[in-house]
């Protein structure tokens, strides 16, 4: 790296360090950024995950369908929805769908089970739980200990389509045209100061704690 390039980089870093963070009252969220990308670059690739891709338009539409289902079931701004799913495109769609309503996503560690899993979902006062097909067994073993209602508060998202949704859960089909794929007005009211996520400590010295 040349001396002049080093000076230039330092100037950029100093300017960034002096920049004030945006006001907590300003509209802003990950979901809103996706809406903007879906409008400006709809057919651009948003995510590449293994052999699967999804465009900004498709990602935004999937998130809107999740939000439509959650809203129809009473989720509103400030409510917490647990998200229990392995890393895949559907995880991002579900996360964005929660944010579309200004709700808080409880990021549940997929390695948890039994007491720790129950503790985390109940601790953040989850109103609903979105879970992946691949984690049905882990959740089924503890669902009777959670402060959630069978057949109403659990939302199943398919993975490879090898398992049907359990009788205590309702399936959300991310491509179901019966669910609205239109943007939700409330997305415009979510601000930079609103809580977006609960993440957890590892729980190595006790039960996990939410931050």
Describe this structure in words.
The mean pLDDT is 91. 34% of the residues lie in helices and 15% in strands. α2 packs across α4. The chain is globular. The protein has helices at 3-18, 30-40, 56-72, 89-100, 114-123, 136-140; strands at residues 45-49, 52-55, 80-84, 104-107, 128-132, 154-157, 170-171, 197-198. β5 (128-132), α6 (136-140) and β6 (154-157) form a beta-alpha-beta unit. It is an alpha/beta fold. The protein has six helices and eight strands. The chain has a six-stranded parallel beta sheet, with helices on one face. A two-stranded antiparallel sheet has the order 1-2. It starts with a helix and ends in a 13-residue tail after the last strand.
Provide the descriptors you would attach to this structure in a database record.
two-stranded antiparallel sheet, single chain, alpha/beta, 34% helix, 8 strands, 211 residues
Provide a concise account of the structure shown.
The chain is an alpha/beta fold. The protein is 34% helix and 15% strand.
């Amino acid at each position: 790296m040349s001396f002049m390039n080093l000076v230039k980089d330092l100037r950029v870093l100093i300017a960034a360090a002096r920049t004030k963070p945006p006001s907590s009252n300003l509209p802003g969220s990950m979901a809103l950024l996706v809406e903007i990308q879906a409008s400006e670059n709809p057919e651009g690739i948003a995510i590449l995950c293994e052999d699967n891709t999804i465009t900004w338009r498709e990602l935004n539409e999937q998130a809107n369908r999740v939000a439509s289902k959650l809203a129809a079931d009473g989720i509103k701004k400030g409510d917490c929805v647990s998200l229990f799913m392995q890393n895949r495109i559907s995880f991002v769609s579900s996360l964005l769908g929660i944010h579309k309503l200004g709700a808080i996503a409880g990021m549940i560690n997929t390695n948890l089970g039994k007491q720790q899993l129950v503790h985390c979902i109940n601790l953040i006062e989850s109103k609903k739980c979105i879970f992946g097909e691949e984690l049905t067994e882990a959740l089924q073993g503890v669902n009777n200990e959670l402060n959630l209602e069978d057949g109403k508060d659990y939302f199943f998202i398919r993975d490879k389509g090898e398992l049907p949704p359990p009788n205590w859960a309702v399936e959300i089909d991310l491509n179901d045209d019966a669910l609205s794929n239109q943007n939700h007005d409330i997305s415009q009211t979510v601000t930079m100061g609103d809580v977006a996520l609960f993440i957890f400590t590892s729980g190595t010295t006790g039960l996990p704690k939410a931050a």
